[in-house]
Design goal:
Helix content is about 30%, strand content about 20%. With about 550 residues, it is α+β, with helices and mostly antiparallel strands. Helix 10 runs parallel beside helix 12 (about 390-405) and helix 16 (about 480-495) packs parallel to helix 17. It is globular. The model is unreliable at about 1-25 (pLDDT under 50).
Length: about 550
């Protein structure tokens, strides 16, 4: 019998051709929003008292953080900002509460741009909000000059003429370009105070009202900066900084006459018109773009002291003086110095310059205590910061060298780097302008004063020292200081808030930087491009001249 024929070959149908084009990438999720930090922190459970992070070391009553002669006030609501977009939104809302001629707006600026969009997409610039207001508006702006002698001035790139003119052109506006300074000094305070229908609110910090804080222009912009909004008795102390300068300045009497003050008025009569009693504070009306509904931060009340820097004018070579501070006012430094002395566990510092010899000595004294746990610092890159300070790198290298001599393991120094995430770039730039100190997660000093001797003794500055009144909040990891540090570390490291809330747990992400980090280790010595040839330190034959120029002209201790 013949063999059966083989079965037919089965040929499967051809699969459809696979497209050769690359599919579009998955959409990038937004990095953050104005309320994201608040939402994330609400999800972080309170710390257990048997947690290793709970050691009871570093707890202080508020009074322990404040120096003698600086009077703190209780019962303040303080909102902290780490993004310019959110700061400007709350500034816009505050300005919108100044509706009538009984209300007041006060502005002090180092560099203020009237065209800054406070709420992008709405057409609401700073000038728009001021033009729409019926409040009396008073402002003082730095003249942009560094005076070498009475006849020689060097012009900086600061230009406040346009915002000054815009305010003076308003029927309800009065503004002055302020050059009342010692030789080589600058007006560096940044202050917005609004006295509107819901009471008095003040904004201070490192943020100038300028596009750089919210513009999206990687890698540098938006600048990294911090700001706070104060509602409560400390807002009056902020207003007092404006009041003192305004009533002291010889050009403001004529400006006050425009707003209803008699030419023969006494200073007290001028004060009554320009600085009337504010309406009762109504925090329900003063909402914040940074808080979700029923935010725990809305009910938090903290202790605040306002510190300032005003030079001893005559000692610094001026022909006049500040009538309100003839011997100078160094309370901004006093708040920081006391924080350094009282800290027992950690200090976290963000600063644009980080060159003050006063701060270096105080920090080294603290660091020499072997029980002190960690000093963590983030600064602006030397390439950007060095444009403002000759021999800046040398000053930083001296600090690095001195820390290395004591202990390499208990400190870290970092600078910002760019993110490759386009969504993150909308919120996070590489230029660091913040001036923020956090001590033991219980005390914060934040304002306009850079970590340089000028900011502490010479240039005009304003800061706030903020202490937690409720020690339970510190123990549970829910203090104002802990929240702010956690938010800053999230911004820099890109690690979830829950992993950063406890300082010593979050520290591992600084020791071993994750791929999401926007920081680089900058603890090593750098060559100073201002030296010839560039080197970490001046040659022995040049060291004395560099030191003299630094301490007498570039960054003097003017006390």
């Amino acid at each position: 019998m013949a063999d059966d024929p083989p079965p037919p070959t089965i040929i499967p149908p051809r699969a459809p051709a696979i497209p050769t084009t690359t599919p579009p990438p998955a959409p990038t999720m937004a990095f953050t929003s104005c309320t994201s930090d608040d939402a994330a922190l609400k999800r972080v459970p309170g710390r257990r008292t048997d947690d290793p992070a709970y050691k009871k070391r570093g707890f202080r009553p508020p009074s322990a953080w404040y120096p003698t002669g600086v009077k703190p006030t209780d019962g303040n609501q303080v909102i902290a900002y780490t993004y310019g977009l959110c700061t400007f939104a709350d500034m816009a809302d505050a300005l919108s509460t100044a509706l009538s001629s009984d209300h007041r707006i006060y502005i002090i600026g180092w560099s203020t741009d009237k065209g800054t969009q406070l709420k992008p997409g709405t057409g609401g610039t700073l000038e728009d909000y001021l033009t729409r207001s019926r409040a009396q508006i008073r402002a003082m702006f730095y003249d942009g000059n560094i005076t070498l002698t009475p006849l020689i001035k060097v012009k900086t790139d600061v230009e406040n003429k346009w915002v000054n003119d815009a305010i003076n052109n308003l029927p309800n506006g009065a503004s002055v370009i302020d050059a009342k300074l010692p030789p080589l000094g600058i007006h560096h305070q940044k202050l917005l105070v609004v006295q509107g229908q819901f009471g008095l609110v003040a904004f201070i910090g490192g943020m100038d009202i300028a596009p750089s804080r919210a513009a999206i222009s990687p890698p540098g912009e938006p600048w990294h900066d911090t700001q706070i909004r104060i509602a409560g008795p400390a807002a009056l102390d902020c207003r007092k900084a404006f009041e003192d300068r305004w009533l002291d300045h010889p050009a403001t009497l004529v400006l006050d006459q425009k707003l209803g003050v008699s030419a023969t008025s006494t200073r007290d009569a001028r004060r009554a018109v320009a600085f009337p009693q504010p309406a009762a504070l109504d925090l329900e009306g003063l909402q914040s773009s940074t808080m979700e509904n029923r935010s725990r931060r809305a009910d938090r009340r903290v202790t605040v002291a306002v510190g300032r820097t005003f030079a001893n004018m005559k000692k610094a070579g001026a022909s006049s003086e500040y009538s309100f501070a003839p011997s100078g006012d160094y309370s901004a430094w006093s708040l920081i110095e006391t924080g350094i002395k009282q800290a027992v566990r950690w200090i976290y510092l963000e600063d644009q310059y980080l060159v003050s010899r006063m701060a270096r000595k105080a920090l080294l004294d603290k660091f020499a205590d072997p029980s002190f746990e960690f000093l963590l610092m983030v600064m602006n890159g030397s390439g950007a910061a060095g444009k403002d300070f000759r021999y800046l790198v040398t000053a930083r290298n001296e600090f690095r060298r001195d820390l290395q001599k004591i202990d390499r393991r208990r400190w870290g120094l970092y600078t910002l780097k760019d993110s490759n995430n386009s969504e993150r770039q909308k919120w996070c730039g590489t230029y660091l302008h913040s001036k923020t100190w956090i001590f033991d997660d219980g005390y914060v000093v934040l304002g306009s004063a850079n970590c340089d001797n000028r900011g502490y003794t010479f240039d005009t500055e304003i800061v706030a020292g903020i202490a937690e009144k409720d020690e339970i909040s510190i123990a549970l990891g829910e203090s104002f200081a802990t929240d702010l540090r956690t938010r800053l570390w999230f911004k820099h490291l890109g690690v979830p808030h829950a992993q950063l809330r406890d300082f010593e747990k979050g520290l591992k992400f600084w020791r071993q930087l994750p791929t999401t980090a926007m920081v680089v280790d900058s603890s090593g010595l750098e060559p100073d491009p201002d030296l010839d040839p560039p080197a970490p330190f001046p040659a022995p034959d040049a060291a004395a001249n560099v030191d003299k120029l630094w301490s007498k002209v570039i960054d003097p201790d003017a006390r």
